[in-house]
Design goal:
Elements lengths: L1 H13 L2 H8 L3 E6 L4 E6 L2 H10 L1 H12 L4 E9 L4 E6 L4 H5 L42 H12 L9 E4 L6 H15 L5 E5 H13 L3 H8 L4 E5 L8 H16 L3 E6 L11 H7 L3 E4 L5 H15 L5 H10 L4 H18 L5 H11 L9 H12 L3 H4 L6 H17 L4 H9 L3 H17 L1 H13 L5
Parallel strand pairs: 2-3, 5-8, 5-9, 6-7, 7-8
Antiparallel strand pairs: 1-2, 3-4
Helix pairs in contact: 1-4, 6-7, 8-9, 12-13, 12-14, 13-15, 14-15, 16-18, 18-19, 18-20, 19-20, 20-21
């Protein structure tokens, strides 16, 4: 027992304090047999055994040889079932032969930071410096994830909200948010090793590591990261080997108090094909949903971009773009970039007509929300009138009704402001639209036949009431 304590003191002098607490303090000395020169130690799990053998076998071998003498052997009593007090004994690969014969100097037989191991080298964080909290506009759909991201960036070593799992549909701002966290961490803590990597690139790196027999180097590199940010992890749902490797990296970082941030297009529970133990770990921190930005947030994002780029775009055009960008931040930025490019090339002012023509090229229209024109056409079909009549000045009862219903349905089923709806339908102002909506709502409540008519019109363009 005294010799084992000396071994621990030597090991402690050659590893970091965190490594010693995590991997060596849990070891319990069981017995030593002078006859067979075998030391038996108890470890709390198969994972601890595997990690010690993969990362510290060289260090352990040298220390045991120094204190117990040439030819000493090590055996692990591994706890496999704590509930039923079951364990198994496995002999270390660090046998007499492996101690006496010099081994090739590879990560497979050396400790990463012990004895003569090198210090981690500086790395490129692969962060996008343009995606920051300063230009990540806050709205109802992202308020919580943004607030948590700021908290993490201010104290990345905290175990609270670790891991942070961000999910949401494409274009909602996930990549921007996780980049913003990384950029803020690097600004506040320049010494931190922060790395952003896409799941696909991680998988390519893993495949190359296997192909060129450098898997231990690959794993050891990722285990030196202080803040690991992985994007689009749904890419791994069918990549079993990649999942297994990431599991060991995740466990190491988590045990050592390192920060893990993950982004995905769905919540952990919907990651079909993902290893259950990984899904469990993804769910043990904070799961934060990013929703598609609502109309107001789209307007705010566009206004900020227009101001940043020094563009002259009227507010009604901004609202029109916000309405028609399918709730995607990526689409919003794409439309503005297209407008800027086309206006320069063709020397045209960015007005509503010009914007409408560009929008058709920049946004997929087949999955596009209903426009005001779509709604007016359906209403006119139902009441057997023409769009021109509805857009005119006539006060005929049937035309007034069609006009009011068109305004009501446009207000209900689009995110366009009332002023824009009034202008498009009949050249009216926003107060006319609000008045029309009130009239239609009152009539729906008191007139069952009219209520059924509205339902029929809505069903004609397949919208939920």
């Amino acid at each position: 027992m005294l010799l084992w304590e000396k071994c621990l003191r030597l090991i402690k002098a050659n590893v970091t304090e965190q490594q010693f607490k995590t991997w060596f303090e849990p070891i319990v000395f069981e017995a030593y047999s002078p006859a067979t020169m075998t030391i038996v130690v108890k470890v709390p799990s198969p994972f601890v055994y595997e990690y010690l053998e993969e990362n510290f076998v060289d260090l352990i071998g040298k220390v045991l040889k120094r204190e117990f003498g040439q030819g000493v052997k090590l055996a692990y009593k591994i706890v496999t079932d704590k509930t039923n007090d079951k364990d198994m004994v496995v002999e270390s690969d660090n046998t007499e032969d492996s101690i006496e014969k010099p081994l090739p100097r590879t990560r497979a037989n050396q400790s990463y930071t012990a004895l003569d191991a090198a210090q981690p080298q500086p790395i490129d964080s692969q962060l996008n410096p343009l995606q920051t909290f300063e230009n990540f506009i806050e709205g109802v759909s992202n308020k919580l994830p943004r607030a948590v991201g700021l908290s993490i960036a201010a104290n990345p070593s905290s175990t609270q909200f670790n891991p942070m799992f961000v999910f949401g549909p494409s274009g909602c701002g996930k990549t921007h948010l996780i980049n913003a966290i990384g950029v803020r961490v690097k600004n506040i803590f320049p010494q931190k090793r922060v790395l952003y990597v896409s799941a696909r690139l991680f998988q390519v790196q893993y495949t190359n590591a296997v192909r060129y027999n450098t898997l231990n180097d690959f794993i050891n590199f990722y285990q030196t990261i202080d803040v690991l940010i992985v994007d689009d992890i749904q890419e791994w749902m069918t990549a079993t080997k990649t999942q297994d490797t990431f599991f060991h990296i995740f466990d190491h970082l988590f045990r050592n108090g390192k920060r893990i941030i993950l982004a995905c297009d769905r919540p952990p529970v919907d990651l079909k094909g993902m290893n259950e133990r990984l899904v469990t770990r993804f769910s043990c921190g904070l799961i934060a949903e990013l929703e598609r930005p609502d109309f107001q947030l789209c307007v705010d994002i566009l206004t900020a971009k227009v101001k940043h780029d020094g563009l002259d775009i009227p507010h009604d055009v901004v609202c029109y773009i916000a309405e028609n960008a399918n709730g995607s931040v990526r689409d919003l930025e794409g439309v503005v970039n297209s407008l800027m490019a086309y206006s320069i090339v063709y020397n045209k002012k960015i007005d509503m007509e010009f914007t409408e023509s560009i929008l058709k090229r920049s946004v997929k229209m087949d999955n596009h929300p209903l426009t005001v024109d779509d709604i007016v056409d359906k209403v006119c079909d139902f009441y057997q009138v023409s769009p021109e009549e509805v857009g005119g000045k006539s006060r005929k009862r049937n035309l007034v009704l069609a006009r009011q219903v068109s305004m009501y349905l446009a207000q209900k089923h689009t995110r366009m402001p009332a002023a824009r709806i009034g202008k498009l339908i009949a050249g009216r102002d926003h107060s006319t639209v609000l008045h029309s909506c009130e009239k239609v709502e009152e009539k729906i409540k008191t007139d069952n036949k009219f209520s059924e008519e509205i339902a029929l019109i809505e069903n004609s363009f397949k919208l939920k009431k």
